[in-house]
């Protein structure tokens, strides 16, 4: 099972390269920068990243899996967020230099045999002229996105996106992470 | 008398782990230390009133947590201060039943989901 953002969404995010970061905000972010709706305001565009859920039964039962849409939230909601929520101004006026996507690949084993795999993006690394902005999924099963500002480039292992794939003495889930440039990620989407 | 009422608890000092331990007096933990019993793909609490039971457990489970507004009515999201612990309530989850997702990073690092059901999926067809 592969669950990636839509290609158009990745392309839209990619268009932020070369623009100037103004602020980032989100729904109810006054007491912590995590929300199901994150708004990134730049000199050339305003993007609304929204955590959403799709249902899949690839494990043999229905479960929720998170995905990220871009600019699919109602405009009224986005406008309300921009007007009423606190604006995070770290790295304001910095140039967006590059954007990468962090991919997690889960492989599930039962009694030593591979039973399924699941691959999805778990985070976006925005490199600016002043540092880095990480946007990551709180869990691969819910809508919440988390934002953090960093001085140094994060490692893919720094992403703390959690999961609830079953693990016991008979069942294990291995996880591998990798960071992809936009063009490489577009080939997957 | 047991300490079962929300009004009797110093809410600000409670963690998700403490809430789980308290609720376990009513809804015992499974062998993995999780609320409910093991079912297909998740845990479950069997009840004749899934919605009401789910809301009652949610209320106890989120004492000390903060309800975060979201842009969707599909979920209620609670975050505990001073930790990464979260609780998500879905009135209608993937299989149609009400469900609570627990992400208790400070309590054995457990992330799991509890469905509130009339009958276990694992018992169907038997």
The N- to C-terminal Cα distance of chain A equals: 13 Å
| Fraction in beta strands of chain B | 25-35%
User: Helix count of chain A, per DSSP?
Assistant: 3
For the report, how would you describe the main beta sheet of chain B? 7 strands, mixed
- Looking at the chains present, what oligomeric state does this protein adopt? heterodimer
Lateral arrangement of strands in the main beta sheet of chain B: 1-2-7-6-5-4-3
Largest sheet of chain A: 7 strands, mixed
How much helix is in the residues of chain A?
A: 10-25%
Q: What is the SS-derived class of chain A? A: mainly beta
Find the count of extended strands of chain A (DSSP E, 2+ residues): 11
Strand content of chain A: over 45%
Outline the low-pLDDT stretches of chain A. Answer: none
- Count helical runs of chain B: 2
Radius of gyration of chain A from CA coordinates: 17 Å
The pLDDT mean of chain B sits at: 88
Helix-strand category of chain B: alpha+beta
Identify the most extensive interface between protein chains.
Answer: A-B, 32 and 28 residues
Q: What would you say about this model in short?
A:
By secondary structure, chain A is mostly beta strands.
Structural summary, described in words:
The complex is a heterodimer of chains A (189) and B (126). Chain A has 189 residues and is mainly beta. Chain A is built from three helices and eleven strands. Chain A has helices at 7-14, 75-84, 182-188; strands spanning 2-3, 21-26, 34-35, 37-42, 46-56, 63-70, 96-110, 113-128, 131-137, 145-150, 171-181. In chain A, strands 1, 3, 7, 8, 9, 10 and 11 form a seven-stranded mixed sheet that branches. The longest helix of chain A has 10 residues, at 75-84. In chain A, 35% of the residues are buried. The mean pLDDT of chain A is 95. Chain B has two helices and seven strands; from the N terminus they run αββαβββββ. The radius of gyration of chain B is 14 Å and the shape is globular. In chain B, strand 1 (37-39) and strand 2 (42-46) form a beta hairpin. Chain B has a seven-stranded mixed sheet with strand order 1-2-7-6-5-4-3, with helices on one face. The longest helix of chain B has 12 residues, at 50-61. By secondary structure, chain B is an alpha+beta fold. The interface between A and B is medium-sized, with 32 and 28 residues.
